[in-house]
Amino acid sequence: MSAAPSAPASRPDSARPDKPPPPPFVLWGSLGLIALTLVLGWDWEYGIGFSLRDIYDNLGRHNPVLEGVRNLDWSTLASPTVLAGFAETFQMAAIATILGGIVALPLALLNSVTGAPNTFVYVAVKNFNSFIRAIPDLIYAVFFVAAIGRGALPGVLALFFLSVAVIAKLTSDIVDGIDQGPVESARASGASHTQMVKTAVLPQILPGYTSFALYTFEINLRGSAVLGFVGAGGIGEVFSNYYQRGWYDRLVAVVIGFFVVVFVVDRISIAVRKRLL
Amino acid sequence: MAQTPTGGMTDAQAQQRSEAIVRPEKPFNRFRWTVTITLLTLFFVTSATVDIELTQLAALPERTLFYLGLMYTPPDVTEAPSAITAMIESLGMAWIGTMIGALVSFPLAFLAATNLFGKPVVFAARQVLNFFRSVPEIVFLILLLPVTGLSPVTVALALGISSIGTLGKLGAEVIEGIEGGPVEAAAAAGGGRLQRIRWAVIPQVIPEIVALWLYRFEINIRNSAVAGAVGAGGIGTLLVRQIGQVREWAAAGTSLAIMVIITLIVDTISGRVRRRIIRGPTRAVDLGANAGEQPEGTGPGAGPKREGPTGSVGGGAVVPV
After folding, report:
1. For B88, nearest residue in chain A (alpha carbons)
2. For residue B44, is it within any domain?
3. Chain A residues in contact with B138 (beta carbon < 8 A)
4. The model's pTM
C-alpha cells in the first residue's frame, strides 16, 4: 500500500517541505504499543509465549475439529437435550434482559450529570456501574453455581448482571448527550428533579434505551454459550458436554445451529430497532 | 401512558385553563403497546416455564451473603501474588488477542466501507464481519483447542478472531465518516484507489481506529475470563478453580478483588489514552468521534453526540460485548 510515489519525479527536491517529526505522543504511544505487545507476547514469566511457528506446526497435527466438520451429525440438532438447551438459553436471555433492563434504567439515569440529583449520587452510581461491569459473566455464574447449585438460575443471574452493565452503560451515554433545552425549560417552570427527569429526560432516551435492551437480548443469547461450562444452564451445557467427550461431529452441528439462531434473532432485532428509532 | 385526555392533570388552575383551550388527545402508539404487551407476556411465560426451583430462589439472598462472608471476612491475601500473575496472563491474552483482531480487521474495515468499495465487495465483507460478531468467544475457543492446545495462546487467538467482527464494523463506520476533500484531492492528483486510501483515508481514520483497538482491549480483558470455562489460564481459570472446584473462598475473595481493581485501573488508563488520541493535546473540539460500541441499527449519529465526562471512544461505551 505504501508503494505510492511520494512526490512527482519532475519536481525539484528542494521544493518539497521537510516532513515534520512525529509528535512525542504519537512516537511514545507507538513505542509503548510495540513494547506492550513484546512484553505480553514473549515467552517468559509474564508473557503468554505467542509464536506463529508453534501455531503453524500445530496445524499439521491430527485435527478432530475438521474431522467433525467432515462427518457432521445433523440429527443431533433434533435431539431432546439440544432442543431443551436452546429453549433454556432463550428463557434465560429473556428473563435476564427484562429484569436487567428494569434495573439498568435508574442506574443509567443516575450515572449522568443531568439525571443524578447530586454529585454524590452520580459518583457513587458511576463507581457501582463500573464495578458491576468489571466482573465477567462467567465469574458471576461460577459464584452463583457454587452458592445455590447448578441450573438455569445462576445463569439467569449472570446474564442479569451482564444486561445491567451493558444497558446502563449504553443508556447513560445517551443521557449525557440529550438536548438540554427540555431540561432547562422543565427546571425554569419549577419542576422538581423527578418531574424534570420524567418529562424532559425520559422521553428523549426511551427509544435508545429500548433499542439497547433488544440488543442486550442478543448479547445474552451469545453469552449463554459459555455459562453451561460451569453448570449454569442453557445451550452451553450441550457445548461443554460434547467438547469434553470430543464429539466434534455433533458439536459443530450444534454450533452451526446456534449461529443460525443468533443470526435470525439479530436480523429481527435490527428490523425492530430501526422501527423504534 | 394514560389514555384519558386529562390524565396527569392535578392543578386546579391548569384544569380551568385547559377547559378553555382544548388539550389535544394523546396519540395512541400502537407499536409501543405491542412491544410492552409482548414483553410482559414473554416475561411471564418464560418465568413460568424455566427450570428454576423456588427453593433455590428462596435461598439466594442468604447463600450469597454467606459466601461473600467467607470470601471477605477476611480475604486470604497470601494468595495475592498468584492472582496478580494470573491477571497479567489475562492481560496478555487480551492484548495479543486485540492485536490479532486489529491486524485482520484493518483491511476488512476498508472493504466494508461503502464510500470506498462497490456494493458486492461491501456486502461480502460485511457478511464476513457479521459472522465473526455472531459467534461467541467460547465457540472459537473450543474449536481451536484441539488444534493449538490448552494454552493462553489459544485463548488469545479465540479473542482475536472474535474481535475481528466488531473492530471491522466499527472501523468501517469510522471510514464512512471521513471528509471527502482529501480523497478528491488525491484523486485529482492522479492517485489510484490504493494511493487514495494510503494518503487520504488512513491519515484521517488512524487515530479513531487505534482508539477502537484500545477500547476492544478493555472488552477483551473481561472476555479473557472465557479461558476459565476450559481451564486455559489467566484469572478466569484461577477464579473458576478457587470458587467452583477447590472452594477456597478466602483466596477467591482476594483474586476477585485483584481482578476488579486491575481491570478498572487498565480501563482508566486506556480511556484517558483514547480521549487523548481522539481529541488531541490542546484542541477542545471533539473530532466528531462517535465510534463507540453501538448496536447495528442505531448507527453513528442516531443518538445525539456527546462530550460527556465518561467519554470512552468519544461517545462510545465500554461494554463487555
Report:
1. A46
2. no
3. 225-226, 229, 236, 239
4. 0.85
